[in-house]
Amino acid sequence: MHELIWFLLPVAALGGWIAATRSKSKQGSCPETILSPQYLEGLNYLLNEQPDKAIDVFIRMLEVTADTFETHLALGNLFRKRGEVDRAIRIHQNLIARESLSNEQRNDALLELGQDYMRAGLLDRAEGLFGELVQNNVYPDRVLPLLLDIYQQEHEWDNAIRTAEKMEQVGVQPAGTIIAQFYCELAEQARQRGETDKARDLLALATERDRQCARASILLGDIEQQAGHPEAALMAYRQVEKQDIELLPEVLDQMYDCYQSLGSLDSMIDYLHDAIPSYNGVSPALVLTDLLARERGVQAASDFIAGQLGKRPSVRGLARFIELNLADCDSSRRENLMILKKLTDQLQESKPVYVCHDCGFSGKAIHWQCPGCKHWNTVKPIHGVEGE
Question: Rounded CA gap, 152 and 18, in Å?
Answer without folding.
Answer: 46
